[in-house]
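Problem 12. The chain below contains 695 residues. Write out its predicted structure in token notation.
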Amino acid sequence: MSAYIVGVLVPLLVTILLRNSKNRKIRGVPADVGGEPGFAIRNHRFSSPLSTAWEGVTTLVELFEQACERHRDRFLLGTRKLIARDVEVTEDGRSFEKLSLGDYEWLTYWKTFEAVCNFASGLANIGHVREERAAIFADTREEWFIALQGCFRRNITVVTIYASLGDEALCHSLNETEVTTVICGQKELRKLVHVSGQLNTVKRVICIDDNIPSDSLPDEHGWTITSFANVERRGRENPVDADLPLPADVAVIMYTSGSTGLPKGVMMTHGNVLATVSAVMTIVPNLGKKDIYLAYLPMAHILELAAENLMAAVGSAIGYGSPLTLTDTSSKIKRGTKGDATVLMPTLMASVPAILDRVRDGVVKKVNATGGLSKNLFDLAYSRRLHAINGSWLGAWGLEKALWDALVFKKVRAILGGRIRFILSGGAPLSGDTQRFINICLGAPIGQGYGLTETCAGGTFSDFDDTSVGRVGPPLPCSFIKLINWPEGGYLTNDLPMPRGEIVIGGPNVTLGYFKNEEKTRESYKVDERGMRWFYTGDIGRFHPDGCLEIIDRKKDIVKLQHGEYVSLGKVEAALSVSPYVDNIMVYADPFHGYCVALVVASQSAVEEWASRQGIAYSDFSELCRKEETVQEVQASLVKEAKKARLEKFETPGKIKLLSDPWTPESGLVTAALKIKREAIRKVFADELNKLYSS
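Solution.
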């Protein structure tokens, strides 16, 4: 009887807390849903999931055309002009490409629409028919957007492929979807040439860059090749009517970045993506013509694809950049010239935690290097603002806030152009320390989003006025979020003080499933008796009393140690990545031992700065990382962060291996969104992991 009472009363108590919390604004409320029993929440402003925010608009094609009609002469797409390309050689003989880039050159909404229509007609002219699929295999740039919209106008399904994808995954993606036309840059074309003998269906290649490599000739590889500009020209001279899609037509087959095994193709309809775009539009205030969006994340990632479609829908301008040219000190920017953010001065940007961590580390490094009065002033200003946000010193708002902004934080904001008013962070959990640091130093809220490729990035999104950290907000207006019991992991919806369980997302943003993978689709997707489609995420969350979700675990990341303790690898990594010595980290746990270990990619600037203070001599960074005193210093830092995060002793890595080479998408050890590929890392560093346990 007592178990029954707990099972009934605890959810009832949580429901009352959600509805009647006096301490916080209510952001999500209980929802009546079908399907597997659980604890469901909806956005407090919408009683049912939102499909579109624009009357009469049901597809991405209609949304884009409407925007171009309304904002004809406004700027839409901007690209920096390349002035010079140089090579710099360091003292140790390594060479690096450096770019000098000019101002942004812009296409208006109507000029972009004309380019889209011309490209769509050009596709028909070169022989591509709607029943065939086209792939876009390129870095983010304005031609990517034009090609996407052009394909949509011919109701051609677009296969998106990360520019950093390895050969095996590239061939798998193109062959599985039977792509006949590939749209790519010069760099990606060379990759295609390398694997041309393994491609079964490619007939045409459209090179975005005018300079087509001579080794890409059709007689060698069996495909016809033409330039992007030529396709536009042929379409302009031979216009054809649009072949418009329906909401249920597949717009995109988006291949995941493959954090485990070969990537899976997620089938997204026009209605799926439109639902997410509509939902975000309703909750970020004042989106519109005054905004400038800095686009630099991979458009093959749903976060960026949805963001750019949203910006175009509301009349904003989109300026293109890259992670390597983002700021004045980015690795590809020639010294003395300006990065993308400085020139564009954006008001909005999307980011992934790894990028924001680097911004934070760069600011801290510069402040520490300056030292003296400047560092003391920064520390004081940061402390005052932190206490103000936490509600301790109300006086740090108002005039005092303006003073600190003018004296200290204005210089920090200049790193990203000085006008950022909102940042969307997604793709992975963002540490509370980094979130608060960016909030204070940039003076802009960070909207943490939670979603997956399978839900078109839709799931939850933190409200503009929510100053809390570590949470991902209430459900987006397009989604219901439900927690279901996972008894094996000890997570139940009647847990106190908050319901916990596996996160299941339902709504019009939930995609059709995995391309040519019915078994995996049936495993992860369910349709309930009311017709609602649900996706089972494998992530573990809990609902706060105001209806906001917090991600606390992942089913696949949990390892049971020798004595029965459970370690959540992702949770530990998130806590330890705050250490200034950590550029990247993977925690590993062997079930036959009672402790975990870690591979740590060292932050070169932080470790070398420490070594300089200690007077440690070394010939190169690799040697420094092998020194016992360096390993001890980094491990002590990890222990410190573990204590701050209240990790158990068995969760804190007992031994670490310090690595000097960064993990990049090109190395195959992280995804294009910079999430670690756990299995790939484990295989590459199998010997090192074994030595950590055997030594």
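Discussion. DSSP finds 22 helices and 28 strands in the chain. Students who got a different answer should revisit the alignment rule from Section 12.3.
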